[in-house]
Design brief:
The chain is mainly alpha-helical and 176 residues long. It contains six helices and no strands. The chain folds into two domains: 33 residues; 95 residues.
Length: 176
């Protein structure tokens, strides 16, 4: 027996190559960069189409919290009226600017206006909630009204442009 070894006949593979062989399954399909790019583009287009359908208010694209004829009615009812809640965020921005003025009376007045608008928005929300539940009970007698008042109030506190799904009715429209 000779002490001299003949070797294995090939160079030792780099660690990166060995790890890649272990990670990649032999059953996995071979995917090229072009196929990955095409799949990514198709997924993006599907997401865009689904979001557009959601913003339009298509029933099959809506999440569970927005589905159903009752919720559609509530959205249309809220969107057909103006409420103080939708102006709360711009008012808060103005209050923030006014509190930067180093005059105590201006700061106090701005904060008083903010709390007054907040109180008025809460009271408006309570009355809106009651009205919506009463209308839903009359229009959809078999449907439960649980959660619809809060749904209406939360939608009424969002600025009209930022509501999603987008408003389907204009301010002043008669809701059926």
């Amino acid at each position: 027996m000779s002490t001299e070894s003949t070797g294995k006949g090939r160079p030792t593979p780099k660690r990166k190559v060995s790890q890649a062989k272990r990670i990649t399954s032999s059953l996995a399909p071979v995917v090229t960069k072009e196929q990955k790019r095409a799949a990514k583009l198709a997924n993006r287009q599907d997401r865009i189409a689904a979001r557009t359908a959601y913003l339009r208010g298509e029933e099959n694209a809506l999440p569970a919290r927005d589905r159903g004829p009752e919720r559609r009615f509530v959205r249309n009812y809220v969107d057909a009226r103006r409420s103080i809640g939708e102006y709360f965020l711009p008012i808060i921005f103005v209050v923030l600017i006014l509190t930067l003025i180093p005059k105590a009376s201006v700061q106090f007045g701005a904060i008083a206006v903010m709390y007054g608008v907040l109180l008025f928005a809460v009271i408006d929300g309570i009355f809106l909630s009651r009205k919506v539940r009463k209308l839903i009970s009359a229009k959809f007698p078999q449907s439960p009204t649980k959660g619809l008042g809060m749904y209406a109030w939360l939608r009424s506190t969002q600025m009209r442009r930022l509501r999603s799904p987008h408003p389907q009715s204009k301010v002043g429209d008669k809701v059926n």
